[in-house]
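Continuing the batch. This is chain 6 of the set; chains 1 through 5 are on the previous pages. Same settings as before, nothing changed between runs. Recording input and output for traceability.
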Amino acid sequence: MNIKNQVYESNILVVDDNPVNINLLEQILKMQGYSNIFSTTDPTSVVSLYKENIYDLILLDLNMPILDGFGVMDALSEFIQEDYLPVIVITAFNDQDTCKQSLSKGARDFITKPFDHIEVSHRIYNMLEVRVLYKQHYEQEKILQQKVKQRTLQLEQTNIDIIRRLGQASEYRDNETGMHIVRMSMACEKLTRALGYDEEFSHNMLEASPLHDLGKIGIPDEILLKNGKLDGEQWTIMKTHTTIGFELLSNNQSSIMSLAQSIALNHHEKWDGTGYPSGLKGENIPIEARIASICDVFDALTSVRPYKQPWPLEEVVDYIKANSGSHFDPQITSVFIDLIPELIELRKQYSD
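Output for chain 6:
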């Protein structure tokens, strides 16, 4: 449909307390070929009428009882600004003060009484042409935004798929841990929510935390799979899995990958500053790493590893409490302890 046809099919509302003026404007509009003309003599009904019909143009008298044209424009202000709703003021006064006040309230043009048919026709058509072009631009913008949103979601899903596959790769290197990364990541999400973080950050913790030990890909098997305690040199090499993971996840701007990078690097830092690789202390340790740390330790202690049997739950809880303020953030520890019954259910559901 061309612009001219769209102009003549626009919804027009005439607001005037004088039925004679309404009839005259309706006749002018009909003679020009406009087909969707509405009118009211009650200015207090304009907002509700607009919500029902979404007008493309309002012809508004200024001098009305109960609520004058300025009051109507005040009531319509949010629609005038957000929807580019054209308002043409109808007035017998063309003084400067009236014009300034009308424009400040959102009016786009003026029609003076008595009406000049040709002038009225041109002013209305020109204003509606702008309205039609605005609506076309708005619809195109919506389509573009939707395409961008869809593409963004596709890219995010691709990143999530990459993360899951990388997490699986690290698990294959250390396969005795079984479902560790599944339980640990779900625990991270639960703990993040319990700490009061929003849906987006909590979900990102679920997706990013499986990569906490990605750097173990770069640790030799004789160290990673050693059945017993590591010696000094071996332990030094083992600790490099944090920086290896950090490097593997670098140079990616996605929020989930950036979060995974931070967790991989910092999940062995300790609240008292005795952790590695940087010896960060307290709140200098990123919150995502503090959350991942306690979830990782809990699941590791309750799991079979090449060098140990699982600890009894009571001993694990005692260990977590004893290390609050040294290994773990005290506030996070308090919330985590309350979540333990849910984490036990996770272990049953996702057992090794």
